[in-house]
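Open question from group meeting: does this chain pack into something compact, or does most of it stay loose? Before anyone orders reagents, we agreed to write out a predicted structure and look at it together. Recording both the input and the output here so the notebook holds the full record.
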Amino acid sequence: MKKLAVAAAASMMLAGAASAADMAVPVKAVVAPPPPPAFDIAFGVTGTSDYLFRGISQTNNNPAIQGFVELQLLDWVYFNVWASNQNWVENFQLEGNSSLEVDFAGGLRHTWGAFTLDVGGVYYTYPGGTDSAGLSSTDYNYWEIYAKPSYVVAPWLTLGVNLFWTSDMYATGTDGTALSATAKVPLPAFGPGGDFGWYLSGEYGYQWLSASAYTYDVVSIVGSSLVTTQETINGYSWWNVGVGFTYKAATLDLRYSGTDLSGNNCTYIIGISNGCGDKFIATLSFTTSLNALK
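Structure tokens returned:
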């Protein structure tokens, strides 16, 4: 019995020593993620087979080269400049002399967990000269304010809403509201080291237009007579769906887009009849920032 008692005591001492040793092992502290940089400059360049704005070609169905620079401060404030070639202003000038669009935007953008909100304003400008009728390309300049919330519902789904409003839609001096819903589904990475990513995404939107600015005459031949009727564009729907592939700073996006505008309506809005139809768009972009390059 004495041997058993000594063995039991020894066992308890060993167990106590093991527990003490376990307690003596330091616990690694949870390292908080580093704070976002107070300052960054993002920049990028894009080549696309067609520059679409809410489903409507801005380049008469031709390719575009685009670029941007964005100043980001305190993970909240941003200002950016974006530029692209365009042709739609020339469609309405007697002597086309504006082939550039330069947009200036700024606002507040921040993320709280799965929720991101971006609010701000943008001013669309069309630098160029003045044609023989005295119409300047800058007469087409206009502005919009916007709110763009998004939410990561799950690791495989992000939903968003884009709301834009102006009292000077397309420089007509009339109200215009655009509302769209977006969805993006990231797919599993692949390739060596999982460097290649890809995603599915889509958008459906509606652009409201003022009847006072978007009512026009349609002349048709009925028998031997010319008959004039009026058509009004109160608004239109646009949509797109596609797949994108990413590798480091590069993204290749393949997309199918369309609107419900007729050829006559398209001509009145953008100056050509075939700029609003269904089409396939390929876009290659490179985007990074100063901090990402460090």
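Observations to bring back to the group:
The longest strand covers residues 176-190.
Residues 35-293 form a domain with the Porin fold (CATH 2.40.160.40).
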